[in-house]
Amino acid sequence: MAKLLYALTHIPQVILPLFNSLGSWTYVILFSLIFMETGLVVFPWLPGQSLIFVTSSFAALHGAEVKMSILVPGFFIAAVLGDTLNYLIGTRLIKWPWLKRRLAGPTMAKAQLFFSRYGLRAIIFGRFIPLIRTFVPLISGIAKYRFGRFMLGNVLGVAIWVVSGALAGYYLGSIPFVQAHFSTLLLGLVICGSLPAVFFNLIKRIRRHIIERNL
Q1: Which tens digits make up the pLDDT trace of 1-17?
Q2: How far apart are CA 31 and CA 78, in angstroms?
Q3: Distance, CA of 51 to CA of 6 (rounded, Å)
Q4: CA distance 134 to 89
């Protein structure tokens, strides 16, 4: 367990040794991490964007061992499949009587109204926010959001997420300053990804406070 925690919190120090010892099987591990982070709600703490950034930076520095031509399509397929599984789990969970009873009425109506108005945007932009990207597909499945619209947002969101993360890692990761401050920059990446959720939550609280004051 300690080795697993070390590996997940020291990705730059682990990637290259993995490729040296396991070869192409390392890709399977990387893609499985992305699949689990997006497809299984019990693993939202697994690395997502940071993993794409780090591995892509290694592709720029060690192109013989780590290939972008494999990373980008692999991450894309893993994330799309993960989100799809998460959505399908949501459609099954809502059929459970105890959950159906808990969510019946106003709660379900609010969720369905939200997705009817903002569903596509939530799926696309939620992909860039840690934790949120794990739960949006599940909730959209529970809210019975149309599968076709979900897949459209899923494919678009994942494509932008993977390509932007991979390009940033590939072109920025080879800069000496970035290499020297990798851990700090990765932490900043996670914080920046969380800022939109904090910002929208703050706006929601302020709006609610104004409404309550004017009642």
Answers
A1: 454 444 445 566 667 77
A2: 6
A3: 14
A4: 12
**What does the block give as tokens for 84?**
């799809």
C-alpha angle with apex 9: 6 to 11, nearest 5 degrees? 95
Distance CA 179, CA 172 (A): 9
Distances, alpha carbon 37 to alpha carbons 10, 54, 57, 114, 208, in Å: 17, 16, 21, 24, 33
Amino acid present at 106:
P
Residue 132 CB neighbour total at 10 angstroms:
19
For residue 97, with 0-12 CB atoms within 10 Å meaning exposed, 13-18 middle and 19 or more buried, which class applies? exposed
Number of residues written out for the chain: 215
Measure Cα distances from 176 to 32, 41, 56, 173 in Å.
30, 36, 15, 8
Task: Round to whole Å and give the CA distance between 64 and 39.
Answer: 30
pTM across the whole model? 0.77
